[in-house]
Amino acid sequence: MSAYETVIGLEIHVELATESKIFCSCPTTFGAEPNKNTCPICIGLPGVMPVLNEEVVNLAVKAGVALNCDINLINKMDRKNYFYPDLPKAYQISQFDLPICIGGYVDVDVEGKKTRIGLTRIHIEEDAGKLIHLEEEENTLIDYNRGGVPLIEIVTDPDIRSAEEAVEFLKTLRAILVYSGISDCRMEQGSMRCDVNISVREFGSEILNTKVEIKNMNSMKEVHKAIKKEEARQTQLYSYGEGHKVIQETRRWDAAKGRTITMRTKEDAQDYRYFPEPDLPPVIIAKEKVTGITQTLPELPAAKKERMMEKYGLSLNEIGILIEEKSVADFYEAVVHLSGEPKEAANWIITELLRVLKTEVDIPITAGQLSDLIKEVKKGTISRTAAKEVFEELVTSDKSVEQIIEEKGLKQISSTNELEGIVESVLRDNPQAVEDYRTGKSQSFGFLMGQCMKASKGKGNPGVVKSLLEEALGQ
Fold this sequence. Notes:
This protein is 41% helix and 20% strand. By secondary structure, it is of the alpha+beta class. The strands form 4 sheets. Strands 1, 2, 6, 7, 8, 11, 12, 13, 14 and 15 form a 10-stranded mixed β-sheet that branches. It has a 3-stranded antiparallel β-sheet with strand order 5-4-16. A two-stranded antiparallel sheet has the order 3-17. Strand 13, helix 3 (220-239) and strand 14 (249-254) form a beta-alpha-beta unit. The longest helix is centred in the middle third of the chain and has 20 residues, at 220-239.
């Protein structure tokens, strides 16, 4: 066991699910033509006046309630001054000493060990533009579409002790935010990004050693890798008596090289020069608004997990997979409602649908279609193998289950008269296998069963074939 422990705090930037930006009416749609979603306000032209989007406040309060925070009924906006080319006005409107939410926590479970991760604060701010660095080019391009998109920044306490705990926290947080309708949290589109603050210290010590910040992580897999590498780097330095070489700095994760790389020496708060935003009044929130927003919270993942386990009799692992994405959990419950088959619905979604969703953004079939497929298998109309063929067709067409079965000729043969003839023919053509079975070589039954299914071109109802074969061999 290592003599050192890792201390981690996270800063998570989450784009809010508003239709327009935080201080202007420009749309927030992802993937628009570069610099299309811009106006004088969000590109910072002199003399413009921001107006705070009320829905930003509503969603920030909703996040605070969902994450067990206290809501500051009086809070304010501040200017965070620094010069980067992705902020043309040379300051960011954010919150400093009076954020909208304080405190809060998220409970996580890593391999049966439950931990409560405290939150320091949640504040609202505007996003910056996006710098595009072209390989082997001297110039950097800037897309200001993202500038002014509303964010909440969620800052944790330094309560996280491992890469695994950090990833589980991010997964749990993401699920809560998506279920609540606060954000789509699509990390691949940058609507959820994470900065990792990490230090190491000797076990038993209460001292917080010098921390390093790893900037702009947008993949949970890469967060895990980056933490592992950085904790190893710092632990090695302390082990060799070179702890002074761990300096407060910002580093980036180079996924290709598998290491963290220095970007710049870390700025302190005074380097940013915060002061109250003069163009915006304080944000005053009525208690009634907080109460109303609290009442709009849907069933959150933890409550859904408990209810589904009790109602559907699934394993903890199955439930965990099904509720990770709200759209999948809702789809599952719709299929169960229509089919009455919770276990079968879970099997189809976990093994087949989630495989398809690795390359698809939206669920490509309806709950009614999957329910119909499950019913046809249960009735014995088609085999499970044939059902998988139907499923693949459903993903790429708008045909009904019945139509696909008919067109592909996949109906199972369940007629005993027809199958009896097939069984008799197989037994007649394979006398040695029959003799082997009757002298105790039970594996011969599997061979004969396979020959029967082959003779029926895979359409024989396995249950009926097995029953007829047992009856014939018992004579």
